Amino acid sequence: MEHGASVTSLVIVIIAAFITPILLHRFKLNIIPVVVAEIIVGLIIGQSGFDIVEQGSWLEILSTLGFIFLMFLSGLEIDFSIFASRKKKAKPENQGTGAPNPVWVATTVFIGIFVISLALSYLFVLAGFIDNAFLMTLIISTISLGVVVPTLKDAQMMKTTIGQTILLIAVIADLVTMILLAVFVSIYGESGGNTWLLLILFAAGVLFYYIGKKFRHQSFVETMAKGTIQIDTRAVFTLILLLVALSETVGAENILGAFLAGTLVSLLSPNPEMVKRLDSFGYGFLIPIFFVMVGVEIDIWSLFTDSRVLILIPLLFIALLVSKIVPALILSKWYDKKTVFGSGFILTSTLSLVIAAAAIGKREGMIDDQMEGALILVAVLTCLVAPIVFKKVYGRFEDEDHKTVVSFIGSNRMTLPVVRELDIHAYETHLYHTKVDKIDERISRNCFDIKELDGYDVEKMKELGVFEVDLIVASTGDEERNAEIARFAKEQGVERVIVRVESPDLSQEMKDLNINVFSVFLSSKALLKAMIEAPNVVDILTKQDSALYQINMNNSVYNGIHLREFPFTGDVIMVRIFRGKDSIVPHGDTELKMGDRLIVTGSHEYVEELKMELEYCEWC
């Protein structure tokens, strides 16, 4: 009977997790993060609402696995390539005297956050709200990557200097507070181990990293990563469980092992397809169960019985604001007040680590159920308020002058004509070739700024800043060298890489690494076939008056609008919509979404008008 009740409760939680995003979409509540909505739904069906969910072994196991997988994906979300200094330009009106170094600024801001959090924690201890200042410091200083990252993406700021700085602050906060949480358990936990035993965990992580680095490009591994074997996915889950088990063995929290597993996989530059599968499994199944159960277990009504807790909630919210906004004032040296305030506000959002710290504090007897509920409730409020205020105060980063920076490695008759035809207002190009390459003197005397290299050594090119760009085009005369450059560019965090290779095996390897492949043979064959079968399509691609254009949908005013209701009536036809990795044939019922890439054709004047409307229009 108990087993039946447990399964019934699991079904209720699964259904709740399923309908939550549907309700958000139906009522156009996209501004609320899905994880926050899941907690709210948990409140409705749990102790604070209808109380129709009973705790059981099924829910306990799946909820724990969901938390572990959430910590793994949080580690996986960290892009360590952003620690490399990139020469990006921010918009002049948002920036003051020179572009700051994101790593230096982020480190300084986080130190300020931690110091202020420590001081505020002692005030909470003196006021009698909590007994342990260390635990309270971790709660106040943490930042939610899961809220910061999508908010920055939505605001088109991920590739800007200020966006990188905000992201780095969140990354450092995630790393430091997670490690300190493990140290906290080792020092204060009744069943905790010795702090030095954590070194065993990190040593194991280093060992697994080098093993993974050695075998990740082996041909037999790539063969077994396909079909029913999926050896790469099996390796990830094995790594998670090994590090979780080792973490618990040395007296740390299991989530530290999961977080470490995520950072190791991130450092190994995993196949994007595998990351997509892991995201689908985590955010599609395990993680929603965890967040719904967080809401189920909170008894809001019990919070009103303790006046001390009611006073704590607004005070803690204010403490979170002060601890983030005050250190963010350092940014005022380079940015205007609106940018500084918006940056400080989005850093206030916190969730996962607060839940972890509250659960640990309750388990160790440092806080009671009411205090745990109050801490989680404040974390949920920050995730609701921070993104909304950020978007209202700051809006989209209006970087109209930003150019896509492209490095062409191999300056020849293949790349030079392309460079000449690229829009100089949209692209900043850099050409490289070796001194031994023969380039026609008539070409070299043109307006091309070609930089000579002693050789195509990737480490030397890295020192010259060749890979500090948005796009790499590897098109030397040697396809093996092109492949080597392309692999290294991906490891350095270059978002888009195009490589010229001809052999099918090498081409498939590049595609598996999410690298775009250009083949002279295949391109010529495809063009000849198109000229025979569909000459009008070739005209569209080659003639300026009927060319195809890409427009990025950045204007929130048109988010969710159907094409048949779209007010723009110019001489423009939408040919295709790319959404993530999906390709959509547009029709009247198709909805426009933020981040869509629209492929259109029509007169140049109308295309430019539509581009201004969708890409550069002010947010309301």
TrEMBL record:
Q: What is this protein called?
A: Sodium:proton antiporter
Annotated keywords: Antiport, Ion transport, Membrane, Transmembrane, Transmembrane helix, Transport
Q: What is its main location?
A: membrane
GO biological process annotation, one example: proton transmembrane transport
Any keyword tRNA processing?
A: no
Q: Which InterPro entries match?
A: Cation/H_exchanger_TM, Na+/solute_symporter_sf, NAD(P)-bd_dom_sf, RCK_C, RCK_C_sf, RCK_N
Recorded hits in Pfam families, A to Z, give: Na_H_Exchanger, TrkA_C, TrkA_N
Q: Which domain of life is it from?
A: Bacteria
What's an example of a GO molecular-function annotation for this chain?
A: monoatomic cation transmembrane transporter activity
Organism field: Halobacillus trueperi
What family does this belong to? Belongs to the monovalent cation:proton antiporter 2 (CPA2) transporter (TC 2.A.37) family.
Say if the entry is tagged with keyword tRNA-binding. Answer: no
Topology in the lipid bilayer: Multi-pass membrane protein
GO CC field: membrane
Localization recorded for this chain is:
Membrane
TM regions (residue ranges) = 6-24, 31-50, 62-82, 103-127, 133-153, 165-189, 195-212, 233-261, 281-304, 311-335, 341-361, 373-390
- Signal peptide positions are none
User: Which PANTHER family is this protein grouped with?
Assistant: NA(+)_H(+) ANTIPORTER YJBQ-RELATED, NAPA-TYPE SODIUM/HYDROGEN ANTIPORTER
Occurrences of domain RCK C-terminal (ranges): 535-616
